[in-house]
Amino acid sequence: MATASTGWDARYAATDDYVFGTAPSRFLLNHAKALTPGSRILAPADGEGRNSVYLASLGHDVVATDISPSGQDKARSLAREAGVEVDFRVQDLQDWAWPQAAYDAVVAVFIQFADPDFRHQIFEGMKRAVKPGGLILLHGYTPRQIEYGTGGPPQVDYLYTPELLRQAFGDFEIETLDAYDADLHEGSGHHGRSALIDLIARRPPG
Predict the structure, then answer these.
(1) Parent domain of 178
(2) DSSP letters of 23-79?
């Protein structure tokens, strides 16, 4: 996905500011307590690192991937400023062999760059990567976000509905599935009234 990489690189490199801010997402602030202390966590498509750096600051062992080298350069700077270590890896999720049961949790925040087929591949990879008994934390926009226009993709089929997530993660124990509206102030990329959805799902043990 050279085009996707080039597009994100250009967006991140165009400003010294962090497009989505340096503070973690409100979703993560609200739900990080669900994570077992000292978890090994995968943060796919983590962009400029605000969420992976926050998770590392809580004492978790974090691997963060992103397609954009420029985004990860900024993420490394953020980690240095915070005094934490994150294993940053440049990775295109479209050609990645997701690991098997390697993480206590997968945390995916605003990763809505994928069409339905690619999204299914990502969701299945996330489910495969988490250990039995482990968690998936997923946060994104619902189709109502198109009306707000305050962030996220313009393609409605890239967005999440409760029904879509219930179907995609129906083989996991869904602990939280909540669609709601809220005001976000997360850099210039996510700013204003937003239509959001949260999922926390646990892989069955054994």
Answers:
(1) 2-202
(2) SPPHHHHHHGGGSPTT-EEEETT-TTSHHHHHHHHTT-EEEEEES-HHHHHHHHHHH
